[in-house]
Amino acid sequence: MNVMITGAAGGLGRALANECASRGYNLFLTDMNEEGLLRIKQGLERQFDVAVAVRACDLTSPESVDEMLSFIDEHRIGFDMLLNIAGLDFEGGFTRRERENIVKIVTLNDAATLRITHAILERRRPGRQFFIVFVSSLASMFPMPLKATYAASKRFLLDFAISLRQELKKQDANVLVFCPGGLATTPEAMRGIEVQGFWGSATTNPLEEVARKTLDRALAGKGIYVPGVLNKFLSFCGKVIPRSWVAAVIRWRWENAQGKWLTGNDNI
Questions:
Q1: Cα separation of 214 and 176, whole Å?
Q2: Phi, psi torsion values for 129, nearest 5 degrees
Q3: How far apart are CA 99 and CA 88, in angstroms?
Q4: What's the number of CA atoms in the CB half-sphere (13 Å) around residue 197?
Q5: What is the model's pLDDT at position 143?
Q6: H or E segment at 268?
Q7: What is the pLDDT of residues 208-219, one digit of tens each?
Q8: H helices of 96-228, where?
Q9: In sequence order, what DSSP letters do the residues of 44-106 get, joined into one string?
Q10: Backbone torsions φ then ψ of 40, nearest 5 degrees
Q11: How many other CB atoms are there within 10 angstroms of residue 91's CB atom?
């Protein structure tokens, strides 16, 4: 199986690359961090009997994506699975963030994901089942003051993935949307989990475990994966409790957490 992973130099992307390689899958890894990609390539090829190709790319740039696609076409690489991992967030209230940072959340999380998904669907290997994974978030289940842009961008991915799954059923392709709680992917993410106290740790998912289960569920033809019993319960609450009530509770909770998290920004 040939698998493409975006955001492969980050924590979840790296965990999924390792899980795929352990299963004998060949990999095409992309990220803006070229040095990180090369380190991962060397480690995976040393540990597993798989082929690993890497290409640094800015997914928010159509020109950069076209250059990567030319590389793929030149080497006649076809794919059986696409793992859309690349994404970002900037913590803090909407008016407290720089305007272009707010826009960049949507540009990478949504526009860039659409761009690469469309391109790789055109480069699937013929005659084989195809799999796509989108990384949404537990945040996609709720309106989230102080994380409004991020949560909305992940809601877009959730709804898009569910719709695309139906579109591609007759084309022998399966779409899974992964909606995790916290993931300890970076020092900043770990700090965010820590300042939330009990709720932060209780909704956090182990990287290696969710990487394994995400692949298992995608291959089994599942549509949505929300890891953890508490996260499943919270996602259910998001469906049955009035959204204005949910937004008010989240505002109260995140005001305190982000005040601790963002140094010098206690009045968010």
A1: 8
A2: -70, 145
A3: 15
A4: 7
A5: 86
A6: none
A7: 889 999 999 999
A8: 99-106, 113-121, 148-168, 187-195, 198-202, 207-219
A9: HHHHSS--EEEEE--TT-HHHHHHHHHHHHHTT--BSEEEE-------S-GGGS-HHHHHHHH
A10: -65, -45
A11: 19
